[in-house]
Amino acid sequence: MSRKEADFSLDEVEEKYRKLVHLNPEKAEYRYFLAKVLWEKGDKQGAFAAYQKTFALPSPPTEAYRDFGKILQKEYNLKRLINFYTEGLELPYTKVLQYLDFLEVKDYEKIGEIFENKKETAKLWTTYLIGIQHHPSAKSLYLKLIKLFLKTVETLNNKFNRHFKLKQTNSDQKTKKLNSHSLQNEEIWNLINSPNLMIKQNTTKTENKKLVKSLIVNCNYTIINLDNITDLQRNELKLLGIETNYLKQNQYSELIKSKQKNSSSHDNKPLVAVEADQRNQFQLSSIINQYFSAICPYTGKDLSSNQSLLVLPQGYNSWIFYRFVSQKNVFYIATGKPDSGFPKSFIYFPKEEIAIILFDQFNEKDIKEAIELFKRSVFKNWNDIKKYLNNSLHKQVIIPISFWHFAHHYWNELTGIYKLYDNDVLEQVDKFLVGTEHYGEIKDIFPEIPENKIDKISSKYLNKEILKNNYFALRVGSNFITEDLANRIYKVSRQQATPQFLSEIESIKKKHFPLLLVTIRLDTRVWISQINGIVNIVKKLAEDFPKIGLVIDGFSLPCGLVGLSWYWAQKCIEKETQASLEIRSLLPAEIPVYDIVGSTLYENVIWNHVIDLYLAQHGSAQHKIGWIANKPGVIHTNKSTFSAPHLLSVTTTAKENSIEPILIPEEHIIALEEIHKPNKNDKRKNLENYDCNWEIMYNELFKLIQKINN
Q1: Where are the domain boundaries for CATH 1.25.40.10 in the chain?
Q2: Distance CA 37, CA 172 (A)
Q3: Which of 36, 51, 224, 696 has the smallest set of CB atoms within 10 Å of its CB?
């Protein structure tokens, strides 16, 4: 048996995917992976059943169709294929059949007879067309296709005559309705931004894409940073009746005097976290008061709003626009930027197309994109928005939990919930709309929240849910992870693990010193010589530490609800697994290697608590170690990241009691211009690849191991 086969038993792989299927029963990818393993083990009946369940789920992987076709080809199991359909079981017939190039003409005729008797015309067409594709000289299939064509034409003629008469009647009725009740997008925009909101409930909108584009793309925005406002800008605002002093009063909220339950954690907060808490006090007061407060930029009077218009996120910002009505105009305060705890970001005046930046970590491009997303959302959801804005009934306070990235979910969303708990505000929230649960169920991490207050919903339907149910939505956040929150995550992770897994982890821990975890990354910010570099580092360390154990980490799967691309995740895991296997093959057999690429985040959390140290790329690869378990480590990154010190600082400022990792100095980093963006919409500028001499990393790791050992 080869080393690779010994390291990965099919039973272990089957157990892994059965566990993932149990945790995520609606994910077709996991069913497909399980089917492949069962087939490889020789469990044909189990494999066929797993493929059938895969095809019954939404969006099965294309590879599943191909593999199933190959299995049928290998087995020449025409009877089984036919039985699937005669028994009424659904399979993606068109996609599977195109891989059955082993079928003979008589087989296609046989399948065709079945579908003709069942009057399944679409499948009958497919059968003959694919049959002709594989057997272009089969006259019998051509004759059957011609016969089917003539019969279909006759049927279509009859349907067309009936449909044309009905369509003409409907068209006349629709024209009358549009003439009396339709609204163009420009009228919609004027209506929603009118102080005296008078919207007839029977009005509808007509989609005019050219007009939408002209209202959005061709708009000239004036964007002013309040912290750097010029005298000229101040005077221009004054001419519009907008007072700069009143604007400034919206930057910070009045501090709420409350005694934190975890006062020691509060005392240990770095300055950046303290400033974020002060800036985001409005979140607590908004929950307590059940409305969002503002100082009117025109009059200086206190205003309130419970009208929250959520914009589905694109990228890292998650916007909510709060609609305020002054005596003169409508204006909005937008919240966003998760890594700062979703602060008040800017004030938007739609009539003048002016945006005032309240928080200077935003640039003009961010603000413009936010406004354009908001406009598109208004036009798209107008029918729901008009009902929402006209609804004067009490609005329940809800907190959306929906960030697609596990690190921001933990660092900014879960810390936000913890902030509510710490300030005794948790019970004043009416509902939590949960779209993502990367580290486990919210009810388990925060047992203080009653289960009837948690509604699970796909993140893409959040705005619809808020409008339909007349909710007042508020994102709450923080940028500081307390030790208590980290311990909660660890506790929930252990609860999700099997006793066997926990026992194996403890056994591995006792066998090795040091137990070194290394992360691999192959999409962006890639250390291009990482495979050989890791091999050389581990070989060299083994000379002085013969009991060394290597843990290879990469992409981790979420524990529950999540809004990421499963296709991308699968490809990422496949590539990283290949890299892990290559590292294994280049290391001596006596050095144990534990591959946790593709493991769940709860398994990853448990591993992070037993390792002695780590070598990781800067970013989320390091954060899921350093923000969970207080372990020492060495990190490396590309040159452009060094020009953004706020990115580097979060390795230590984001978590209480975190151990500052050793950063490989910039002078040892070799800059490369090669960039492979998995997402073309990713606008980050620090994604280039790089190289570094592995001996630099080895020296730092060696010193760190000696320090731990002493």
Answers
A1: 10-160
A2: 59
A3: 696
Non-local CB neighbours of 464 within 8 Å, separated by 6+ positions:
381, 384
Q: How far is 97 from 111, CA to CA, in rounded Å? A: 11
Cα distances from 392 to residues 199, 386, 446, in angstroms, run: 13, 12, 32
CATH code for 497-709? 3.40.50.2000
Residues with Cβ within 8 Å of residue 548, at least 6 apart in sequence: 512, 513, 514, 515, 516, 538, 541, 542, 591
Q: What is the pLDDT of residue 63?
A: 75
The residues facing 225 across adjacent strands are 357
Whether residue 208 has pLDDT greater than 70: no
Distance CA 287, CA 476 (A): 10
Question: In the chain, which residues fall in CATH 3.40.50.2000?
Answer: 497-709
Higher pLDDT, 692 or 69: 692
- In this model, does residue 20 exceed pLDDT 90? no
Helix intervals (H) in 435-522: 442-445, 462-468, 483-496, 499-511
- Which of the pair, 549 or 69, is modelled with greater confidence? 549
- Which tens digits make up the pLDDT trace of 638-666? 998 988 877 788 888 889 999 999 999 99
| pLDDT of amino acid 443 | 95
Whole-angstrom Cα distance, residue 629 to residue 555? 18
Q: Which residue has the higher pLDDT, 32 or 68?
A: 32
Residues whose CB falls within 8 Å of the CB of residue 594, separated by 6 or more in sequence, listed in order:
508, 549, 550, 551, 552, 607
Instruction: Please calculate the CA angle 551-554-555 and round it to the nearest 5 degrees.
Output: 140
Beta bridge partners of 481: 655
Could you please report the per-residue DSSP string of 283-330?
HHHHHHHTSEEEE-TTT--EEEE--EEE---SSS---EEEEEE-SS-E
Q: How confident is the model at residue 96 (pLDDT cuts 50, 70, 90)?
A: low
pLDDT-derived band at 461, boundaries 50, 70, 90: confident
How many helices and strands (H and E) does the chain possess?
31, 22
Burial of 57 from C-beta contacts in 10 A (0-12 / 13-18 / 19+): middle
Count Cα neighbours of 553 within 13 Å in the Cβ-side half-sphere: 28
* Closest C-alpha to 347, from 246, 258, 257, 279: 246
pLDDT band of residue 88 (cuts 50, 70, 90) is: very low
Burial class (CB in 10 A: 0-12, 13-18, 19+), 77: middle
CA distance 320 to 370: 10
Instruction: Let me know: does 324 contact 212? Beta carbons within 8 Å.
Output: no
236-274 per-position pLDDT tens digit: 999 999 999 999 999 876 555 555 666 555 567 888 888
Rounded to whole angstroms, the Cα distance separating 640 from 646 reads 12
What's the CA dihedral at 209, 210, 215, 217 to 10 degrees?
A: 100
| Whether 573 contacts 597, CB under 8 Å | yes
Lookup result for tokens 């990713």: 682
Mind listing the pLDDT tens digit for each residue in 610-628?
Answer: 999 999 999 888 999 999 9
Say how far apart CA 651 and CA 661 lie, in whole Å: 7
Question: Domain spanning 10-160 has what CATH number?
Answer: 1.25.40.10
Omega cis (within 30) before 297: no
The beta-carbon contacts of 677-681 under 8 Å, at least 24 apart in sequence, are: 677/524, 678/523, 678/524, 678/568, 678/572, 681/314, 681/315
